[in-house]
UniProtKB/TrEMBL annotation:
<comment type="similarity">
    <text>Belongs to the ROK (NagC/XylR) family.</text>
</comment>
<protein>
    <submittedName>
        <fullName>ROK family protein</fullName>
    </submittedName>
</protein>
<dbReference type="Pfam" id="PF00480">
    <property type="entry name" value="ROK"/>
</dbReference>
<dbReference type="InterPro" id="IPR043129">
    <property type="entry name" value="ATPase_NBD"/>
</dbReference>
<dbReference type="InterPro" id="IPR000600">
    <property type="entry name" value="ROK"/>
</dbReference>
Length: 305
């Protein structure tokens, strides 16, 4: 059965290190209400922020929200127990945090907790109407959500899809994971900001604009960045062989120019390998629509499932 937004109704919260984005989905999958609030760090701050967004969604929807709430968060998530750990960007470190139970008590409704990239992968499935999908999030870091035969693949330790920590350059930069030369040190928002610092506005937008204007330094930085994204796509294609690969995340707000350059890099990678070229990875690649809250919508789908 192919995934679809039609016929679902739910509430989803995407809790990130800087903002929390909440949505209410209608029966046809349309977004009926959405709210953004700054996220307060720490366990207490995360719970309080979620409550604030939930109450604002209820006001925007014109009534109480009694349905189950799906919550997407960064870090290692045990969805069965509703536990969160190592969510450094949220100020949650160390021991398991019983986030599901804390939120359920505060919101007064059942709650389901999922890794944010995994949640976004479910929404990506619905967008492209396929059941074998890799969602590649190019944000502050680099990670993938995997859906195989319509089911999330989380892995034994919740680490499936951590493609950003695949080493590709032994002489590269140290990675926050403790390894050297990981893809995340090349193809992530953090890496891009280091390579192309800008005083105002998103570095990715500034880089792609400068490259489009013919700046040789910008072109070099852009090409290396897009090579890194293409390398992640190649690795995922060779290991998962999904029907579709969907790009999302904060850097993907650059839009079509990002997809075009990643496609160009994929085709270049395939020039010396008839085998790789035969896989047609470039033809499987698409992007989340601009400004679409894919992680929040995915969290609502988590609740609906």
């Amino acid at each position: 059965m192919r995934a679809a937004l039609t016929g679902t109704r739910g509430v989803g919260l995407d809790i990130g290190g800087t903002k929390t984005h909440g949505v209410v989905l209608g029966e046809d999958g349309a977004i009926l209400a959405q709210v953004r609030e700054s996220t307060r760090p720490g366990a207490d701050g995360v719970v309080a922020t979620a409550e604030r967004v939930f109450e604002a969604l209820a006001r925007e929807s014109g009534g109480s929200l009694g349905c189950r709430v799906g919550v997407g968060v960064p870090g290692l998530v045990d969805s069965e127990r509703g536990m969160l750990r190592h969510a450094v960007n949220l100020g949650v470190n160390g021991d398991d945090l019983p986030l599901r139970d804390l939120l359920a008590e505060r919101l007064g409704v059942p709650v389901v907790v999922e890794n944010d990239v995994n949640a976004a992968a479910l929404a990506a499935c619905a967008l492209v109407e396929a059941d074998d999908v890799v969602y590649l999030s190019v944000g502050t870091g680099l990670a993938a959500g995997l859906v195989v035969d319509g089911r999330l693949r989380r892995g034994e330790h919740g680490a499936a899809g951590e493609i950003g920590h695949l080493p590709v350059d032994p002489a590269g930069d140290p990675c926050g994971c403790g390894q050297v030369g990981c893809l995340e040190t090349i193809a992530s928002g953090r890496a891009l900001a280091r390579a192309w610092p800008t005083p105002d506005g998103p570095p990715a937008a500034a880089l792609f604009a400068a490259a489009a204007a013919g700046d040789p330094a910008a072109i070099a930085v852009r090409d290396r960045f897009c090579w890194g994204v293409a390398s992640a796509v190649r690795a995922l294609g060779l290991t998962i062989d999904p029907e579709r690969i969907v790009l999302g995340g904060g850097v993907a707000e650059v839009g079509e120019p990002l997809r075009e350059q990643v496609v160009r890099q994929l085709r270049t990678l395939g020039e010396g390998s008839p085998f790789l070229a035969s896989l047609g990875l470039a033809d499987r690649l698409s992007m989340v629509p601009l400004h679409y809250p894919v992680a929040a919508v995915g969290a609502a789908l988590v609740a609906a499932r």
